[in-house]
Amino acid sequence: MDSQIYGVRILLFLALFSFLASAYSALPENPAVKASNSTVQINSNSVLVALLDSHYTELSELVEKALLLQPLEEAVSKHNITIFAPRNEALERDLDPEFKRFLLEPGNLKSLQNLLLFHMIPSRIESKHWPVEVNRKPVHHTSLCREASDEKILLRAKNGEKIVSTAKVFKSDDIIRPDGIIHGIERLLIPKSVQQDFNARRSLRATSAVLPEGAPEVDPRTHRLKKPAPPVPVGAAPVLPIFDALAPGPSLAPAPAPGPGGPHHHFDGESQVKDFIQTLLHYGGYNELADILVNLTSLATEMGRLVSEGYVLTVLAPNDEAMAKLTTDQLSEPGAPEQIMYYHLIPEYQTEESMYNSVRRFGKVNYDTLRLPHKVVAEEADGSVKFGQGEGFAYLFDPDIYTDGRISVQGIDGVLFPAEESKAAPRAAPVAKIVSKPRRGKLLEMTCRMLGAVGHDSHFSSCH
Fold first, then answer.
1. pLDDT tens digit string along 333-354?
2. I want to staple 402 with a disulfide (CB 3.0 to 4.6 A). Which of 91, 337, 371, 409 is the partner?
3. Which of 378, 388, 401 is nearest to 290 (CA)?
4. Which pTM was predicted?
5. Which of 14-18, 25-29, 311-315 has the lowest mean pLDDT?
6. What is the mean pLDDT of residues 372-386?
7. pLDDT digits (tens, 9 = 90+) for 438-450
8. For residues 76 and 296, what is the distance between their CA atoms, to the nearest angstrom?
């Protein structure tokens, strides 16, 4: 009896063991093991190494700036990839400068990554795999860009030339490696998502407060038209007064703007200041700055008075996130809010384009501020303008929020403070004052002669 029970127990144990073994085999792979196996080391014969060392230098630099090396290493470890590499001229000379500046801005890193991944296909496509023109059936492929999954890469042949979407292949099978292949194309492929992001940013700039379309835009410094005025019908009144048509001469100032305290106020500065503060509130993210200008200080009134008297201003506007980092000690001291804001007011009219061109040309530019004598330093960094030095710096990331020809507002992501005063020189030990002896000789002789001449020519006579 005991032997039968023991045999039944053995059979039940074997059945349970076989069930657990089959269930374990049906389980998915251990994610930790799978992750460890997926991290394959990239050897020197990889297509990624070949791309970084190739003559496609502009593309390789963009791949490094977009931080795509690690994701591409993972993609290469899973499957072969095909890279359509635009030539250097397509990225350096033929590309719209405004679009390239948009791609290189720190806040648009995702758009740059999507643009580059759109040029890569997770499969190996050699020239022999290209569709033949006789078949007239183009082949569609999905790129590595996930946001453009619904937008396929079109491969076709036309007039004996290989075409990728809208770009011609000028050198097929340019670089061949075991884990991938690179074809050279003549132009850049831009996915719809990146184009939409760029158009949205450009339309945002277009909606900033500017002069109405069709009205002549006058440069406040030279008082000249910035662009040609639209054609005027015959017999119509002149677009500008006669004064503006005169060439500035020796007796004619180049601009009619009066100096400080002048009797005539040609500009309504208070309305312009109200407009730019209202624009900040509607734009969003700059409520703290507007509150300081209106409620904590009288800067709004002062700025309006300056603009009314003919001055121009550029406001470096820190956003709310940057203003929230200010401590109570920094704002509680008497006059502290005014001093902070004065350092963000530049008595010049600068736009994003003018500042970026300046730092690109001169490296570093020192702008005067209303907090005399301190200046704010600007330089180029990551395709944008960087203000400040050391740890206290800020990037220009909301350009041209408000531009009306007199006031320009540029959004920055930090609060700027002037560099610390240079270390006070150690006080030197008191030195005995050396009194120089009066010079005699020729100087004294000349003085006596002058006095004698004055006395000789005098018309006054002494009393006898």
1. 888 888 999 999 999 999 999 9
2. 409
3. 401
4. 0.40
5. 25-29
6. 90
7. 444 444 455 555 5
8. 58
Beta strands at 161-164 and 364-368: parallel, antiparallel or unpaired: unpaired
Compute how many other C-beta atoms are within 10 angstroms of the C-beta atom of residue 312: 19
Closest residue by Cα to residue 179 from 35, 41, 39, 45: 45
Q: 237 in the Ramachandran plot: left (φ > 0), alpha (ψ -120 to 50) or beta? A: beta
Question: Which is higher by pLDDT, 264 or 238?
Answer: 238
CB contact burial 202-239 (16+ within 10 A = b; e otherwise): eeebeebbeeeeeeeebebeebeeeeeeeeeeeeeeee
**Separation between Cα atoms, residue 25 and residue 33, nearest integer Å:** 15
Before 256, cis peptide (omega within 30)?
A: no
Residue 227 confidence (pLDDT): 64
Q: In whole angstroms, give the CA distance from residue 315 to residue 396.
A: 12
Report whether 360 contacts 380 (CB < 8 A). Answer: yes
| 8 A C-beta contact, residue 446 and residue 439 | no
Distances (CA, A) of 178 to 44, 49, 323: 11, 12, 53
pLDDT at 364: 92
Tell me the C-alpha distance between 427 and 59, whole Å: 57
- Residue 345 is classified by DSSP as E
Separation of alpha carbons 211 and 432, rounded Å: 67
pLDDT band, residue 228 (cuts 50/70/90): low
CA distances from 309 to 49, 74, 191, 399 (A): 61, 62, 49, 26
272-303: string of b/e by CB count within 10 Å (b at 16+)?
bbeebbebbeebebbebbbbbbeeebebbebb
Q: Which of 268, 266, 220 is nearest to 405 (CA)?
A: 220
The sign one gets for the Cα dihedral 293, 298, 300, 306 is: negative
SS3 398: strand
Task: List beta partners, residue 184.
Answer: 85, 171
Task: Report residue 433: phi and psi, to 5°.
Answer: -75, 125
In this predicted structure, the answer to whether residue 77 has a pLDDT above a threshold of 80 is yes
Is residue 346 within 8 Å of residue 316, measured between CB atoms?
A: yes
Mean pLDDT of the chain: 76
Return the beta strands (E) in 160-291 as ranges. 161-164, 167-177, 180-185
Q: How many Cβ atoms from other residues are within 10 Å of residue 326's Cβ?
A: 16
Tell the residue number behind the tokens 């008297």, with chain if given.
309
Q: Alpha-carbon Rg of the chain, whole angstroms?
A: 36
